[in-house]
Amino acid sequence: EAGVAQSPRYKIIEKRQSVAFWCNPISGHATLYWYQQILGQGPKLLIQFQNNGVVDDSQLPKDRFSAERLKGVDSTLKIQPAKLEDSAVYLCASSLTSEQFFGPGTRLTVL
Amino acid sequence: GQQVMQIPQYQHVQEGEDFTTYCNSSTTLSNIQWYKQRPGGHPVFLIQLVKSGEVKKQKRLTFQFGEAKKNSSLHITATQTTDVGTYFCSASGTYKYIFGTGTRLKVLA
After folding, report:
1. Residues A45, B100: C-beta atoms closer than 8 Å
2. pLDDT the model gives residue B71
3. Hey, is B66 helix, strand or coil?
4. Which residues pair with B32 in a beta bridge?
5. Which of A68, B15, B30, B64 is found 20 to 30 A from B93 (Cα to Cα)?
6. Mutate which of B10, B89, B92, B97 to disrupt the A interface (most A C-beta within 10 Å)?
7. Closest to B43 (Cβ–Cβ): which among A43, A58, A98?
8. Which of these, B47, B40, B35, B48, lies nearest to B101 by C-alpha position?
9. Chain A residue with Cα closest to B30
10. What is the pLDDT of residue A71?
11. Phi, psi angles (nearest 5°) of residue B83
């Protein structure tokens, strides 16, 4: 069974630029999560989708971050404009039950 | 906001020694999950605890959920170098999936 796919794996941008991350969850997983993991910290949930509906986005900085999950499968997370403090690994996870399967993450560096 | 604290933050042990990490919440939890993240890797699900006082074992790993469902522990017996990594608890309660601060384990051969 294929795991959660994410791209790109690495991205370096300058502050105030825009960036987008893509996630393809495990086939059949209705729930999809985006996490931000800053170096040395635990993952922080940004947004949770159930199919193509948002379940929780209380920790998503909506002035600069947006996410969508069209057709309830793939998802994209966008940051516009980026700030230095957005440097982190962005993890996508999916689940069928409560067990979350994580992708390899996208490491974002904002200069 | 709501936080899930883990102690210790770091632990260095000699191979063969035991290791325990503790996860504490100020509020009652619906369930708790444990994940392991290897250096440079992504979190991998280990187990979920749901019931008050629940104890589950996976080979050398023992997981406990407190009677009040506010704390949990992960104990590794006779650590091996393959146990190296950061162990996170992830709590679900009135808030959604808050990850703990993690305990970074280093095993010295």
Report:
1. no
2. 95
3. coil
4. B49, B91
5. A68
6. B97
7. A43
8. B35
9. A98
10. 86
11. -85, -5
Please tell me the distance in Å from B63's CA to the nearest CA on chain A.
16
Residue A1 Cα distances to A50, A101, A104, angstroms: 21, 12, 15
Give the mean model confidence (pLDDT) for residues B44-72. 96
Over residues B56-79, mean pLDDT: 97
Residue-wise DSSP of A51-81? TTEEEE-TTS-TTTEEEE-GGGS-EEEEESS
Q: Work out whether strand B31-37 and strand B10-14 pair parallel, antiparallel, or are unpaired.
A: unpaired
For residue A43, which residues of chain B lie inside 8 Å, CB to CB? 43, 88, 99
User: What average pLDDT does range A29-56 have in this prediction?
Assistant: 94
Contact B96 A55 (CB under 8 A): yes
What is the DSSP secondary structure assignment for residue B104, as one 8-state letter?
E
Output the average pLDDT for chain B: 93
Per-residue pLDDT at B61 exceeds 80: yes
Backbone torsions φ then ψ of A43, nearest 5 degrees: -60, 140
CA distances from A75 to B6, B13, B32, B102 (A): 31, 41, 26, 27
Look at residue B94 and tell me whether its pLDDT is greater than 80.
no
Asked if residues B37 and B24 have their Cβ atoms less than 8 Å apart, the reply is: no
Cα distance from B47 to chain A (closest Cα, Å)? 8
Residue B41: φ, ψ to 5°: -110, -170
Residues of B in contact with A99 (CB under 8 A): 33, 45, 48
- Mean pLDDT value across residues B71-100: 91
